[in-house]
């Protein structure tokens, strides 16, 4: 059974700081997505990582994928208050395209 | 592109009643997923379809839950009878299989009293 673990589950940080969210998964996959969810809203796609070593950047967010380590990271550079949200990673099983989400990291950035 | 459309947005019902949630995926997408979100359990995959065929329903909690996809543009998730522990936000999402990300609907917030 595929397990997807994110850490930390909750993160409170000051504006201007850097931080990294980690996503570990337990079985073979070479596709991983990152999503953002604001309170009371739906999920919005941030990044699509489709191969080992993939790196994507958008503004202050950068995501990477290491399929050998079964690890993805979402790095936040010089955080701003607008990035406060819950961030989810989602792993696609190679064998059947099943998509499993981590529990999410609730990010609170203090102004 | 209207996005994934779910209805209703909110549903309040009494225990024991039947509840039907509806989803219209994005035109051309061939995969459809139903998820349930709660504070305690996060986002749980209930069932997903590929080309209208159910591929994996192992996440459906019990026999009270059923899902159908009669055609490429419509899916339903039914709970009969409903129980208070079914209260959650139910999301439908669609994608093009093969590496395309999921596009989520706005969700249905279900409250069972």
Helical element count of chain A?
Answer: 0
The low-pLDDT segments of chain B are: none
Structural class of chain B: mainly beta
**Beta fraction of chain B:** over 45%
End-to-end gap of chain A? 40 Å
The description of the largest β-sheet of chain A is: 6 strands, mixed
Shape of chain B: globular
Write the layout of secondary structure elements.
The complex is a heterodimer of chains A (111) and B (113).
Chain A: E1 4-7, E2 10-14, E3 19-25, E4 32-37, E5 43-49, E6 55-58, E7 61-66, E8 71-76, E9 85-92, E10 99-101, E11 105-110
Parallel strand pairs in A: 2-11
Antiparallel strand pairs in A: 1-3, 3-8, 4-5, 4-9, 6-7, 7-8, 9-10, 9-11
Chain B: E1 5-7, E2 10-13, E3 19-24, E4 31-38, E5 42-50, E6 53-56, E7 65-71, E8 74-79, E9 88-95, E10 103-104, E11 108-112
Parallel strand pairs in B: 2-11
Antiparallel strand pairs in B: 1-3, 3-8, 4-5, 4-9, 5-6, 7-8, 9-10, 9-11
Question: How would you explain this protein's 3D organization?
Answer:
The complex is a heterodimer of chains A (111) and B (113). Chain A has 111 residues and is mainly beta. Chain A is built from no helices and 11 strands. In chain A, a hairpin with a 6-residue loop joins strand 9 and strand 10 (99-101). In chain A, strands 2, 4, 5, 9, 10 and 11 form a 6-stranded mixed β-sheet that branches. In chain A, strands 1-3-8-7-6 form a 5-stranded antiparallel β-sheet, with no helix packed on it. Chain A has strands at residues 4-7, 10-14, 19-25, 32-37, 43-49, 55-58, 61-66, 71-76, 85-92, 99-101, 105-110. Chain A starts with a strand and ends with a strand. Chain B is mostly beta strands. In chain B, strands 2, 4, 5, 6, 9, 10 and 11 form a 7-stranded mixed β-sheet that branches. The A-B interface holds A 31, 33, 41-45, 48, 50, 88, 90, 92, 96-104 and B 31, 33, 35, 42-43, 45, 48, 50, 55-56, 91, 93, 97-107.
Index terms:
A: 111 residues; mainly beta; six-stranded mixed beta sheet; 11 strands; globular; B: mainly beta; four-stranded antiparallel beta sheet; 0% helix
